[in-house]
Prior knowledge:
Blueprint: H1 5-13, E1 22-25, H2 28-38, E2 42-46, E3 59-62, H3 65-75, E4 79-80, E5 90-91, E6 95-99, E7 103-114, E8 119-125, H4 132-138, E9 143-148, H5 156-165, H6 171-189, E10 192-203, E11 208-210, E12 214-217, H7 226-229, H8 239-246, E13 250-253, E14 258-262, H9 265-277, E15 282-287, H10 294-305, E16 312-319, H11 324-337, E17 344-350, H12 353-362, E18 368-370, H13 373-383, H14 385-388
Parallel strand pairs: 14-15, 14-16, 16-17, 17-18
Antiparallel strand pairs: 1-6, 2-3, 2-6, 4-5, 7-8, 7-10, 8-9, 10-11, 10-12, 13-15
Helix pairs in contact: 2-3, 5-6, 9-13, 10-11, 11-12
Bound molecules: guanosine-5'-diphosphate and manganese (II) ion.
Manganese (II) ion (MN) binds near residues 51, 198 and 212.
Amino acid sequence: xxxxxxxxxxxxxxxxxxxxxxxxxxxxxxxxxxxxxxxxxxxxxxxxxxxxxxxxxxxxxxxxxxxxxxxxxxxxxxxxxxxxxxxxxxxxxxxxxxxxxxxxxxxxxxxxxxxxxxxxxxxxxxxxxxxxxxxxxxxxxxxxxxxxxxxxxxxxxxxxxxxxxxxxxxxxxxxxxxxxxxxxxxxxxxxxxxxxxxxxxxxxxxxxxxxxxxxxxxxxxxxxxxxxxxxxxxxxxxxxxxxxxxxxxxxxxxxxxxxxxxxxxxxxxxxxxxxxxxxxxxxxxxxxxxxxxxxxxxxxxxxxxxxxxxxxxxxxxxxxxxxxxxxxxxxxxxxxxxxxxxxxxxxxxxxxxxxxxxxxxxxxxxxxxxxxxxxxxxxxxxxxxxxxx
Length: 389
Ligand code: GDP
Ligand code: MN
């Protein structure tokens, strides 16, 4: 789960990381108010769950209250497309107004969960401001890497080594140690998977301050991080995935036109592959999980069909814990209740498969049955209205 920059800054500040003073605005008037309160100039920043805002026109240094209000007015209610978003971009519902910082140097600091080493990896660089992917490609030698064993933690001397590696001197070294240990503790104590400060700035006066902040968290740990869970902004998420999560269904939105209702992630992957192999493209897949009731299957149909790109539905169930008769009943119920007119391909296998087939066949509905996964995928591709055209 991602959070907004202003939330990450507030969280990190609680762990001793220095951040600029700022205020959150949901309207141009509020932006002007913060500009007046903080003192000019200010930086007005679109709050979206994506980086690359600076280059996309989502960040501006404003010298007057009116300029801050105008810039906020231009952002609020719009979608911001950056190189880290898709073509639709992310909606801007709030802006962060911050006292401007006098920048002498921009550094990069990132902490990530490194699954390969099963450790926390710190990445730092003297070349801040650039995106880490570009930096890693264009200036790999400019990256400092340090792997931290969580059983040991980030020691003072390791933090000092990184500070020296970044060319910091004198009191800056102690400040960097404080930034690093604050980030590390925030990462560990809040079950984060990523903390990124880009840029971490050396100010004209020589101090350090986090000018940007990004954090991601382990969704599986949210049950024990209520303060973090409260920072979730569903407005930044794929609305289809958010709606499915509300039903306890796992949904992944894609870009094709075949809607898929499947049980289990492995079967979902195999089905995606078979659809592609048959020359089609999945619009999404929805995992109904184990022991799905007919009602759950109807909810699954509703979610899959909320995507207007869907022109055919493929139901592929390999029932172990599930029961084919329940799934079949759900398909029939969905077809009638939702008044479906688009083609539905059903492939059932496993527990109670005969009963399942009997329900489908006896329904009198134009459902397309398939025996194997390959047949089901091919039938779904053929059944697309667009395929005929
Ligand atoms: P991102 O593009 O989404 O990563 O957003 P950032 O928060 O990193 O802002 C983009 C750029 O705006 C930074 O790299 C800075 O160069 C610039 N910027 C942000 N805040 C300030 C500030 O207070 N003063 C100055 N001079 N530039 C700033
Ligand atoms: Mn940034």
